[in-house]
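Predict structure. Chain length: 505.
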Amino acid sequence: MEPSAPFGVTIVDRGPRRRRPRRRSPFRRWLDRAATRTRPFAISLVLNVVVIAVLALVFVAPRRPGRFRLDLSFASPAVTDAVTPGVPVALPPDRTPDPAPVAEPPTESVGEPAASSHAEDPPDTEGPPPPVGQLLSGRDDANRAALVAAAGGSDETEAAVARALEWLARHQSKQSGLWSLKGPYLDPGPQENQLAATAMALLAFQGAGTTPDAGRHRAVVERAWRALVKKQLDDGRFDLGTPIPPQHEMYAHAQITIAACELYGMTHDPRHREVAQRALSFAIDAQGPNGGWRYAPGQEGDMSVTGWYVMALTSGRMAGLDVPAGSFEGLARFLDGVAVNGGARYGYRRLRKDEAPKDDTEAISAEGLLARLYLGWRPAHPQMATGLQSLVATNGAMLTAWNDPEMRRRADFMKDVYAWYYITQVAHHCGGEPWQHWNRAMRTVLPAQQVQGRSEAGSWDPASDRWGYLGGRLFMTSLCASMLEVYYRHLPLYGDAAVKMAARP
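Prediction complete.
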């Protein structure tokens, strides 16, 4: 049998062989003689020494150092989160030296890797409606100065507010205690709406902390509310006895409801609670089937009217009044229906489900974004960040142009204070760079453009304003004053922590 072998070599079996005796080497013959002449204990000693030497070579030999793993994780130094989520801030290059090379990992399993300490949580973009119970507390005298300093106001902005309130106080009717859109002052509006005029004036006074019992103009505010309470109907509406254009009635009710809820929230006086709750209940019942409000109770809503009702219901929440959650659920549904670009902008109405919303103007879009903030969108929400940045960039340039004499003489120059009123609130609630950019222009331009040293000192001129020809000088002055009160009028929902800290007792 010829067994196979590696590489194809064949081995032939030729049977057993006879062994020949081998000749011993000289060293072997010497070793044999030494063994016969040496004593047994000497042989044992030699063998022990040899064994110990072998063992030493086996167990005491130097070992190669094991490999280790060095994990150095570095975040990118180019961009980091800003104070306001969603608005990144570029930083200078990192000065940290390059990390050492990473050694090879061990071959054996080391289990699941630990989470990196540098991993960042995803930005908070949406949540439940934020708490609003303390948002009116900034109006107290003890908080105002600190909030002005913390949020970027100045002595000039406060002086402009004081002059505006003086102008408004001068034009309150001594007979009725109310205000008028039609004068007596220069550049009045073409249509009368005493309820809206009185509401806007009161919002300016109350925004500065004035109530019937506190503030320089407390007598002015007390006289207005005394007149209004007498005119409230059982269903919560106010009938001042003067005709109001039908398309303005619901606007005016929302505005006076905001003022009534603020007054109760600022004073917690039981005398003001019933007035506020009745006005608020009418507003709640007037919500349309699409979740918005319009010119008559129960109509399909539009964003322009709905924006005021957002603040009416939210002011009720601020005051601790009864506002059902279903009202805000309907509002969210309405906003989804008029959203443009995923909610970065908003249209006036959606006439048909298969058509896009129409007229996504600057004012309408700012109203929609403000409503989203109160419903739970955070500043880091992509559409909130995109929408606000666009509004601030476009309108910041327009606002700055108001301070440029050459720009004001251009035929295409146009102010939009109605839009700026809402943009101011959205930017302040979000904080961060959009607010800083907007505030730098607002705190400079508005005091500079306030009328000085003439019969209308303290007011703002409605000329060349998109809506000034309708609202007139009182409309312009009330909104501009409220804009300059933004530092304390409402504490920021999500903005800089320093502003909220400044308002703590």
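Summary: The mean pLDDT is 82.
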